[in-house]
Amino acid sequence: MTIMNLSQEAQSLNDKMAGLDLAERLSLAASLGGRVVFTTSLGIEDQVITHVIGQNRFDIDVATLETGRLFPETVALIAETEARYGMTINRYFPLKEDVDAYAAQYGLNGFYDSVEARHACCGVRKVKPLARALTGASVWITGLRRGQSGNRADTPFVEYDAERNLLKVNPLADWDIERINCLVADEAVPINPLHSRGYPSIGCEPCTRAIKPGESERAGRWWWENDEKRECGLHVPEAALPSLNSSEL
Ligand code: SF4
Prior knowledge:
Number of strands: 6
Bound molecules: iron/sulfur cluster
Shape: globular
CATH class: Alpha Beta
CATH architecture: 3-Layer(aba) Sandwich
CATH superfamily: HUPs
Number of domains: 1
Oligomer: single chain
Helix content: 25-40%
Low-confidence stretches: 242-249
Number of helices: 7
């Protein structure tokens, strides 16, 4: 399918998904053909999506980026989730040579020193493994929500990802956190215990802190940086990131 056709298809699917419930949205995404991949961080939104995929046995590959710097609670939740739903969550690790090269250039925890060093670490531990997770995929499902941050306020249900040449589906785009919490409580969805300790958004352990009352949901991510639009690069076009040479991504 051409780029123009995929853009048009994304717009058409976006309009269609607005009137569907979550299971219907995921069913539609699974029916689009080709390899359909859902990438989960094991955060509460992603656990809701995993729950619906698992309940309905949708033909969707579930993958996670095992960065090597995750909280032990997150790592434990991967196995717990697999057991609960009888599914395999495919783990994508960073390459040892990339991690070693990063440590040699910046230091293992060099991400605290500059935005460039931080994006380089995310590049090695997240963006490159994501590229492997999405190899051959025609549809990529995420747990992005508009309410998570100002940066995500315009998240559509379906968009054309030109960089990866696939359809990106965000079936929870219009859900708020109260609705997420209700479903989790009603259906006993397994979630990360860190959520109840002040971590609404959970990434790598050295780069995530609990938030304070009144702070935005993602205020605890890379909290030492001043940029309000902090992201790891997974959901940001490469051109929008601070200057990095391509080997760092
Ligand atoms: S979140 Fe932190 S530790 Fe994880 S990949 Fe990014 S910079 Fe590295």
